[in-house]
Amino acid sequence: MALTETELLTELEKDLQHPDLLFMKSYIKEEGITADTGKTYEEVILNYLSAHPEKMQKTDTNWSMYLTVADKASTGGSRLLDGILTQNDFNRGFALDMKVVLKDSQVREWGRFAFSSIDREGKVLTLFDMRPEGEKETALARLLRLWSWKESVNPVVLSKALSLPAAFQIRAVSLVTGASNERYGLEEKKRMPLPLKKLGIILGVSELYLFHGFHLVPVNQGLFLSGQYTKAELLSLIERDSKHPESLYQKDYMNRMGITSDTGEPCCQVLAEWLLSHRDIWMSLTKGLYRRIEGSRAEFLIKNHYFKNIRKQKVLPPFGRVLSDDLLFLGSRFQQTGRPSLLLYDAEKGKEGYSLLRVLEIPESGDSLLAAVLRIFTHLATMDDGKIIDELKLPKETQVEGRILLEKSNRQTDLFLRDLPFLSALMRAMGVGLVIMEDGYEALW
């Protein structure tokens, strides 16, 4: 039987004693019309809740106890979810391989967020509830369910799972899947009603549709571009990731060749300035994560004609002779982390003499200059200089440097040279330089 507006509000006020259970009430789960004023239940409830947000505040006495469990999202075997996680960028931030499950006092599942994302500054964590289009649930019930789940999450558990400070804000999104792309071409687009959207803003929840295919991001002066960072965002990312400096060169933002969206500085410049002041982060890296391999084996692994021709020539002016062994650098689990590195040795006797071992590397095709510099410096930092100098029977005073080998008249080379002025101070401090290969006649010392 239909309720009057007064009866409906009386029920609502009574049930707000436990707001986490509100979405389960029949007058919210079902669509109805008030018996006296003819208004929809949704309209009456939305007006009341929007005007009294204080009555929805979570307290120690009005909320049930729920256990928060954070786990890997990728273990579910969903191809759709795997596609989102593999993409990395999502929701103007980063997709996270983390699902969140809520359990009640009897350890039964109360709620579930399929995966998460975090903004580029690490300040807003979004939890996604994936729902197929056409599911029989009123829009108001979905919104209140999502809010109840979000508020039931223990942020300390998520903070530990993500190794982030607990100062982030949590939002929740109902992500509708399986909708036809035709919906974007309709004159009457299906959107969330404005009153629902307003309440969603108050509660920190929203509804979005999952789209897959070509889509556009407008680019205008002063407009934030997906994938473009502010200076603060870049610094926040590198500060977070600096706990594991051995993998910094693998981070996507290290290969950004654009400028910051707010200050207009080259991204590489912002990152290089930070790295120059924090070179001590590499001091903790494990030494000895490499192995020596014969040059012929290295040529087979790298499949690069430069290394083959250099080895045949036996010398590489002005950097001296080519050693018979190359180095293969390894990760913490002793997996190969890059191409083999050629070893060059040069020495000069006398009062102004020197003894130099140079590690020569070819950058990956997708590397920016900054990523290439960090890659080789990470390799240098994991070398046990004393041990390898002894193994190669070189003088004890031998110094080790790194060099990145570039091709002449190559697009990547042009980009590296463009960024060189912003990274030159960092490269000098790291003992890393650039060299360009040429073939032909030259006048040398």
How is the main sheet built? Answer: 6 strands, mixed
Q: What is the overall shape?
A: elongated
- The topology string of helices and strands comes to HHHEHEEEEEEHHEHEHHEHHEEEEHHEHE
Q: Can you give the helix content as a percent range?
A: 25-40%
Number of strands: 16
As residue ranges, the low-confidence spans are 218-224
Strand order of the largest sheet: 2-3-6-7-8-9
Distance between the termini: 101 Å
Task: Give an overview in words.
This protein has a 6-stranded mixed sheet with strand order 2-3-6-7-8-9. By secondary structure, the chain is an alpha/beta fold. 33% of the residues lie in helices and 20% in strands. The model is unreliable at 218-224 (pLDDT under 50). It is built from 14 helices and 16 strands. Helix 1 crosses helix 3 (41-51) and helix 9 packs parallel to helix 14 (411-430).
